[in-house]
Amino acid sequence: MPIRLLSPEVSSQIAAGEVVERPASVVKELLENSLDADADSISISIEDAGKKLIEVADDGFGIHSAELELAASRHATSKLVRSDDLFSIGTLGFRGEALASIGSVSRMTITSRVKNEKEGARLKVEGGKSSKVTKVGTTVGTTVRVMDLFYNVPARLKFLKTDVTERRTIDNLVTRYALAYPDKRFKLSEGKKSVLQTSGDGNRRAILASLYGVDVAKQMLEVMAEEEGYSLSGFISPTTVTRSNRKEITFFINGRWVQEIALNSALLQAYHTLLMVGRYPMSALFLEIDPAEVDVNVHPAKAEVRFRSQDKVFSFVQRSTRKALLAYSPVPNVAPSLWGTTRTVPSDSNSSSVGLDWTIGHDEEIRDSRLENGHQSAVSGQSPISGSQPQSQFTKIPLMRLIGQIGATYLVAEGPDGLYLVDQHAAHERVLFEKLMAQREMQKIPSQAMLNPEVVTVPPQAAKLLLEQLTVLNRFGFDVNEFGPNTFQVRAMPTLFSGSDSSAALRALVEDFEEDETPLQDEIEAKLAARVCKRMAVKAGQALSSEEQRALLTDLEACDSPRTCPHGRPTMIHLSVDMLERQFGRRGAR
User: Among 177, 200, 223, which residue terminates a domain?
Assistant: First the structure.
């Protein structure tokens, strides 16, 4: 095939693919343009997850009517003059590609007016082709209206995620920029529904509540540090609030949201030895640095950067966050005399306390159990309900004789063929799950009305997911209703979970899950039930009375799939008599 030049239409769509990957990319580029225009108020409206409409309106300084057509041309920008300016970039945009790229894959209209002009101007761009600029009456500022994104590149539409995912990505983007610019007023609307609205009063913690919920926002720890031209501010989570992945680690450099491995590593190093394996902190950190010390011209999306002194930046971020973390959560001093100390629990006790108070570095589930005020042991002595659908093909377990509890986490029991170590949390998950699923099969899930209905507020993206799952939740014996923007009221819970934290049940449905859900991937209701049961089950570190321990073993023995929790994690380890005899040298090694 001979070599030929690409047509302008094809080359513009290829270039657009580097900048505009999805609807959130459009929002990001237009949002950054508004911030560069020194806007005090920015309003974003989307429809059909951004595929049908994205509109960003601001009250910035606007674009001169004589320059409006040029603004939509490729490599046209007011932010760079000489090549040397690339090495000291102080604005969010600088490449001059955003408007041209967006216009080449959509039907775009730009309306703008500067302060010293009596009327504004409007330019329409469709598939990269511009019409003539027309005069219109409008307020000072710029409004960019993007319709039918990727209408001329249908293959790109096929690779977009679901509408829920695309909307969630936009929500996360706008909320994080609202965090970075708390003195600006942001408004995000999806159709006729307002998703986010900030006052611009500079209160970052209030915006954190919109992103993570009120409970988490209250617990976030503030970071403030300055050193040799570097400045770091923002919030990090305490060791009691973690996630199963790095998605909630957010860094801004000079007002620009970046995904930088070195910064993430510095933050994780600050939490070293304080979090269990597989758990990650949350952060919203803002690093101010001399623009000449950081290169943002690495990728068209401007999400990656390079530092002139990476080790120095790494060390500054690590030390600053570690200092803030320890200032709020000092490492406890445990007296040697406590080692080996056992705690006697009265037989009628429902206590969820633990002998040793490991505030930092202990199991996440122990910390969760301490945060659940008034949480009572959900282990009951009721007769197990049969008839639930098995989730695995493991055989039944034999009847076991309880010996005791180790570390307030594991039950020790003797069976006819050896010793069993039972994980009380995983075992109780299995018991609750099979009882709940059995009740669902009989279409009779006993429900108990709450004396004081609980009101739960969740982040906007979580509220959307929860709304979609309310029908399923109500079928499982919950009575949950929408109670305002991103707010829900819990009026009743299944009797099976009586005394547990209802807000934990709701959050379990919408938070990222840390365990493999492969066994349940084709059963949506079973997956949701398993998530709720995980939150309602007794926690590791929760001391159980002898009666509660025996009841748990009895219920587990009656389960259809007693050897694993609903997510496939083992509930027990079996040490056979034969293996014990080998280990003690009674039979010798073979």
Answer: 200
Residue 355 lies in a domain: no
How would you classify residue 202: left for phi > 0, otherwise alpha for psi between -120 and 50, otherwise beta?
left
pTM, two decimals, is 0.64
- Which residue type occupies 140? V
How far apart, in whole angstroms, are the C-alpha atoms of residue 491 and residue 495? 13
Q: Which band of pLDDT confidence, cut at 50, 70 and 90, is reported for residue 98?
A: confident
Does 162 share its domain with 227?
Answer: no
- Residues 111, 22, single domain; the answer is yes
Residues 419 and 453 in one domain: yes
**Helix (H), strand (E) counts: the chain:** 17, 23
Please report, for the domain that includes residue 566, its CATH number: 3.30.1540.20
**Residue 105 belongs to domain spanning:** 8-200
* Residue 206, domain member (yes or no): no
Residues 35 and 134 reside in one and the same domain: yes
Q: How far is 240 from 274, CA to CA, in rounded Å?
A: 10
Q: Give one DSSP letter per residue of 438-473, joined into a string.
A: HHHHTT---EEEEEEEEEEE--HHHHHHHHHHHHHH
**Residue 138 belongs to a domain:** yes
Please give the Cα distance from 43 to 34 (Å, whole number).
Answer: 10
Residue 340 and residue 346: Cα distance in Å, rounded?
Answer: 19
pLDDT tens digit string along 146-173? 999 999 988 888 889 989 889 989 998 9
Position 442 pLDDT exceeds 60: yes
In a domain, 155, yes or no: yes
The kind and range of the H/E element at 86 are none
Q: Quick one: 308 and 408 in the same domain?
A: no
Q: Are residues 185 and 269 in the same domain?
A: no
Residue with tokens 């069993």: 420
Residues of the chain with pLDDT > 90: what percent?
38
Query: What are the two backbone dihedrals, phi and then psi, of residue 207, each rounded to the nearest 5 degrees?
Result: -70, -35
Alpha-carbon separation of residue 447 from 500, 531, 546 (angstroms): 13, 19, 28
For residues 398 and 522, membership in a common domain is answered with yes
| Same domain for 384 and 527 | yes
The tokens of 54 are what?
């994205």
Beta pairing, strands 283-288 & 230-236: antiparallel
Residue pLDDT, tens place only, 410-427? 999 998 888 999 999 999
With 60 as the cut, is the pLDDT of residue 349 above it? no
pLDDT grade, residue 553 (50/70/90)?
Answer: very high
Residue 222 has pLDDT above 50, yes or no: yes
Of 497, 495, 490, 493, residue with least CA distance to 377:
497
Q: Which residues pair with 230 in a beta bridge?
A: 227
Backbone angles phi, psi at 204, to 5 degrees: -70, -35
* Domains in the chain, number: 3
Token pair of 526 as six digits: 């079973």
pLDDT at position 340 over 70: no
Q: Which residue's entry shows tokens 């309310």?
A: 470
Could you give the 3-state DSSP secondary structure of residue 243?
strand
Collapse the DSSP code of 201 into the 3-class scheme (helix H, G, I; strand E, B; otherwise coil) and give the result: coil
List C-alpha distances in Å: 176 to 198, 209, 314, 435, 513: 12, 12, 22, 41, 22
